[in-house]
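Changelog excerpt

This revision adds worked examples to the README so contributors can see how folded entries look when concatenated. The first example is reproduced verbatim below.
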Amino acid sequence: MSDNSDDQSNSSELSAEARQKWERVRGRLRAELGEAVYSSWFARLELEGLKDGAALLTVPTKFLKSWIQSHYADRIRTRLCAEFTSLEQIVIDVRSPTRRPRARDAETVSGAVVEKAPPASAAHVVERVEAPPAKAPMRHAARGDGESFGGSPLDRRLSFSTFLVGPSNQLAYAAACRVADARPGEHPLFNPLYTHAAVGLGKTHLLQAVARSANDNKRRVLYLTAEKFMSGFVSALSQQNSIAFKERLRNIDVLIIDDVQFLQGKSIQQEFCHTLNSLIDAGKQVVVAADRPPSDLETLDERVLSRFKGGLCVDIGPLDEELRMKILEARIAAAQEAQPNFHVPPAVMSYIAKTIVTNGRDLEGAVNRLLAHSTLNGAPLCVETAENAIRDLVRSAEPKRVKIDDIQKLVASHYNISRADILSSRRTANVVRPRQIAMYLSKVLTLRSLPEIGRRFGGRDHTTVLHAVRKVEELASKDKSLSEVIELLKRMLAE
């Protein structure tokens, strides 16, 4: 009954135990869905409280609420029920400064959350979150202001003149310049242009540079993130003006879509595919960016992937040391405009360029930390100071230490049995297979010997563990679904 006592309260009164359980739920969602999907849809999902068997969850926007309810409500409910055993339903609502969500504001029907309208007599007490006003029509590109591109806002700093070129991004830069320099009516040479790179390597910088430069060349440009495209489509459907939405998309010269890996939903992907085909067939330019090559976008419609593969696909590779040094020099120069006394010795710059090898955003973070140490402490920067300042940005090469207890608990939870079942002498099918998988994971993820693993599994002999390891290896090589489950469990344990 511990799940009921301390947890049935609002967010400000959640017990430490309840907060820990919620963090475990978030961790499992991140491991199951991957960092990209989690960051896009779940990073701003918060547990406000638990009351009367309902978990009260909130998000900052109505679109995010609608999307999570439509695509992930069952998954969230399953993970919450695994931690809060008395849970019966989940309520997802929009955060508002004038109103907190309440369990009676919603009800669960077949796993989906349906809002109840407040009674008329309570209208003066409870202020509902109203639907946002209809979006203004998308406008064609106008010079200077990123918002006037009719889509996602543009950062004025992201232009071709501020993009630093090196061997890893030279081809992508040249292709982007060629696309941006085309004149109105000129048939696209690379269409679509598909750029992919890991986080922080400059793909968004290039896309926004293309948008601004193409606009300067008197072309009608629309720059959208995948989330903005989905939001616009959903809004058009709800406002019953989807035809106008389609016409606006097709009445442009250059369509630029960032983070296309986040496009989800059958109807949304179908509309994107129709838009893609219409623009390319009409000789209009399409530019797309993602965090992986088209062949790795397993969730996208095959027709969309075929179009991507038919264009020019270029990747931006890791930053070499020379390019990292260029980025550092540019960031330091920008910081010195605001703080003229900010000085970074060459030895410190060299240390950071050699130490931070991940991406440009981490290099910018390093400069910000050095600036803080220099201006707040007033002491000259040295390598030792820099080492302390950027400690949190240095990726540890040491893998997380996995414990056998954690393996047993996770496997038991995944297969809806108890840890005691795994350690018991029971030999029913629903217990034997999870036990063997837990033994296998203990062997491959820990440094424990077979005899020690056997002792941790109810005092079993090492030959039993060896048999379990070989059995799981054999089954996983033949059963793709089992192999995927094992990989999922490995990722969750590594989080």
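The second example, added in the same revision:
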Amino acid sequence: MEAVVFLNVDIGSEDRVMEQLAAIPEVKAVYFVYGPYDLVVKIEAPDIEKIRAVVREKVRKIDGIRSTTTLIVAKSHAK
């Protein structure tokens, strides 16, 4: 399963938070973006419960993250 997580972080903490997110084994990509969110994270895990645990127990515990919005991928197509 895959999930895309949109994050808002404290100003100036983007690089540090990106490094900590990248160290999580289930995190496959981290993007610094402009717009309503600061970072976008791609997570891969065997099931939805594991995704939930990664977001709750690993991602949200990183200091500097103010909010998360998680989207579960229903279907994907990659080149």
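Reviewer comment on example two: Residues 48-59 form the longest helix (12 residues). The first strand starts at residue 2 and ends at 9.
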